Amino acid sequence: MTLANFLDSYIGRYIVQACCHSLVAALVADRAIQAWRITDPLVQQRFSLIVVLFPIVSFPAYQMINPERGSLSFRLEALFDSGRWLNMELWGIIPLNVVFVCILSVTAFVFLFQEMIPVVKHTVESRGPASPEEEPVDPVVGKALEHLPGGMPRVSVIEEDEFILFSSTGRSPTVFLSRGLIDLLNGEQLRAAVAHEAAHIARNRRPLLIIVFLIRILMFFNPVVLVEFRRIIQEEEKVCDDIAVRFTHKPRALAEVLRKFNSEREDLSLETIKKPSALGAALEDYSHNVHLESRIKRLEEGPPHRTGGEWVKFLLTLAVIVAINYFVV
Amino acid sequence: MRKNVRGFLYFAVTIAILVGVLRVTNWLPEVLQGGMMKSYGSIEDVKSDLGVRDIYVPSYFPQNLAWPPSRILAQSRPFLAVVMEFTQGKTGDVALVISQAADKRFAPDGTIAILQIKDQVNYTLKGRTALLEVGTCGNEIPCSRISWDEANYRISLTIKAPPFELVKIADSMLR
């Protein structure tokens, strides 16, 4: 079976159309967020979920509604026929379908090593026996968290000078923070930082993201879904920022914590660009800083502005995505 | 409220632009490389545009079918394929589809879809072994199809009728 024949089979068409449908969905969802100036990360996350989940069912659903959707006549009248591009050849030598499959392979590779393996590793580690003994609470941390609503989470102090702050889920969810960070932050800031991690733990009890991740595994080959899922994770940070602010009523304290994490951005020098590994790390660092800066900015600007009618906008956006993608084959 | 209305307008405009971009993107391969499946006005146009010499056309044609073909589709990329549709003179419905493709898996279209095949036999057509299938389309209309390999092509004829006329048409396409 040639590559062209495979891409023309049911599975091949599923893969190709899933990528096209998610790209269209991403563009429409992004325009919707811009058009209605949706700043609430929870609502933005809802729009991003369309991009991740819709392409999983779109192709089989459309084919069920109209089995003739793949026919010649339909393709001729379609808004976009992927086959026209995949049958092209770059400089008359390299078929574009080979380039397309290479992109899918790289995406699958990235998904496996950057998402799947770390998640499995984390799941296995967090399934270990729950530590029976409660660690004594560090007095500084205890004092800072005594008025945290919803009860104080389990906190473990790492005796390191570096700035470390993360939480683990599983049987005994714990917030980990380093001695260096405790020494650096004041009481309000410490409370805000732990409240943010407590929000992650609380949201993990309603594991929407885990369910989405499990479904999203089906789209392991899809580069658009890879990018969009990371966006959802970034939105999750903002959702937890908002929860932390609701707990503490101190957005500026959390902004200060984030500012301390925001490392100095290095300019991309020519020397850096010449080294692919260094360039990758620098770009990742840059992207991380940009994300932190956007979180700081929105914390300083105050709570998200809701224009209302979010569900109407969501349903309209979904309807547009469904309608356009019907004609994308 | 005014912000929301402006948002709806802005959204509508961007969706219209997106649809336009999709249309242009769909048209680009034809401009960049050509040879994509498209509609032609006549068989001569197909021959001159795609540089194909051997397009198989019947010399026998039943009176109830209209000539020339109501629709001609052809492509040269990724393989050569020509599809001709003929309508019934009275009703204007597509009654005969002739396809010629350099790939055996090519499916001409669902214009005449045989839903149930009742009989399948090998039929000798001027020395070629053809597969003759008889069955029904929608509404229990009798339909038949004959297909065989000719040079580098797979030729297939589907008609909304019993196979008698179909065999005559197929026979007239060969020397």
Overview of this protein structure:
The complex is a heterodimer of chains A (329) and B (175). Chain A is mainly alpha-helical and 329 residues long. Chain A contains 15 helices and five strands. In chain A, strand 1 and strand 2 form a beta hairpin. Chain B has 175 residues and is α+β, with helices and mostly antiparallel strands. Chain B has an eight-stranded antiparallel β-sheet, covered by helices on one side. In chain B, a hairpin with a 2-residue loop joins strand 5 (116-125) and strand 6. Chain B starts with a helix and ends with a helix. The chains are: A mainly alpha (329), B alpha+beta (175).
Would you kindly provide a brief summary of this structure?
The complex is a heterodimer of chains A (329) and B (175). Chain A is mainly alpha-helical. Chain A contains 15 helices and 5 strands.
What topology does this entry show?
The complex is a heterodimer of chains A (329) and B (175).
Chain A: H1 3-8, H2 10-35, H3 41-65, H4 72-77, H5 82-86, E1 89-90, E2 94-95, H6 96-126, H7 139-145, E3 154-158, E4 165-168, E5 174-178, H8 179-184, H9 187-205, H10 208-216, H11 223-248, H12 251-261, H13 270-274, H14 276-301, H15 310-326
Parallel strand pairs in A: 3-5
Antiparallel strand pairs in A: 1-2, 4-5
Helix pairs in contact in A: 2-3, 2-11, 2-15, 3-11, 3-15, 7-9, 9-11, 9-12, 12-14
Chain B: H1 2-32, E1 38-40, H2 43-50, E2 71-75, E3 81-87, E4 94-101, E5 116-125, E6 128-136, E7 142-150, E8 153-159, H3 163-172
Antiparallel strand pairs in B: 1-2, 2-3, 3-4, 4-8, 5-6, 6-7, 7-8
